[in-house]
Hints:
Blueprint: H1 2-6, H2 12-40, H3 46-67, H4 73-94, E1 98-99, E2 102-103, E3 107-110, E4 115-118, H5 119-137, H6 145-163, H7 168-184, H8 189-212, H9 221-233, H10 241-252, H11 276-309, H12 313-337, H13 355-386, H14 388-395
Antiparallel strand pairs: 1-2, 3-4
Helix pairs in contact: 2-3, 2-11, 3-13, 4-5, 4-6, 5-6, 5-7, 5-12, 5-13, 6-7, 7-12, 10-11, 11-12, 11-13, 12-13
Amino acid sequence: xxxxxxxxxxxxxxxxxxxxxxxxxxxPVYSAASNLAYVGGSGNTFTFFVKHFMHLFLGxxxxxxxxxxxxxxxxxxxxxxxxxxFVLLLVTMLQGTTIDGANASRWIQIxxxxxxxxxSTLAAVVLMVYVARYLSKIKDQKVSFKETILPLWVxxxxxxxxxxxxxxxxxxIIFTMVMMLTFIGGYPIKYLVVIIGxxxxxxxxxxxxxxxxxxxxxxxxxxxxxxxxxxxxxxxTDADYQIEKAKIAIATGISPLxxxxxxxxxxxxxxxxxxxxxxxxEEYGLFGGVFLLVMYSWLLFRxxxxxxxxxxxxxxxxxxxxxxxxxxxxxINMAVAVELFPVTGQTLPLISSGGTSIWMTCLAIxxxxxxxxxxxxxxxxxxxxxxxxxxxxxAI
Length: 396
């Protein structure tokens, strides 16, 4: 263990934040999993505790392994992974999994280990790295919109089109993050306006076609529209059941019930994943909510610091590309729980249960740590060169 800690590189604050969030996650996940254990399982909550531990253990192993890889290699890996991700998304979509006649093909089964994997989360990380690579390539160059269509926007829209039928919220988040990154990366604003307009038109066409031919193309358009309409109108329907229970849990948090004593976890179907923030407030009160806000804000601050200190344009954009979505997703998850946003199905990074989400978050953080590790390496080298005693010892 000491040998592993000795070889840990990168931003120590980010390591601390991730570790604190992971440790904190055990109590709410173990508490919220009781509903799953007694409704759909054998009643043994410890099984879910062990499962969450294994997911985090593998996630930290991924993070440790990735942070040891020089970040310059992610530039080429993104080129290799884009077609692989495209194939995985296509296979996922063609599975034809439906729930109540709607497309629900989000996971593929991993052979041998018999585990499910949500391909859209991997696609999001790979796509953001790919966009960062391209933006760093054209930085300070004058490019026309036509020149960027094939290398930049075709891969973006192809991946979004494959995710959209089963998962609108993930599609919207990825698109928003790509727009934000391209804006930060200096891509011409007038071209971004065209892309946003194209995206809106494409979404409208998809909705019209999906409504016109629901049997030919199973989709979740009706679910999306009902959620947005109910949120806008403030109507109480069956779709708002989870939100109502989440609000009750948060209101109860005025007088926290204490660890493991949540009541609403028995009524919230996604209490250990999508709505775990509400359970945390119910059990830990304002302290739990503020703690998470501080942790994610601190993470955002460190992401910006690491980005600014990077030794290359690609490093700067890479950190923002994989780091900002983590904080953005966390804010969306918390906003849904307090009804500031329609239900999206997004988990709380490093807190919610679920293997794929934890693994891909750790993958993204590993990339950030790889960039900060390179900066540390450069500083150590410069310090060594400037130290006359080191030069003298080498001469002797």
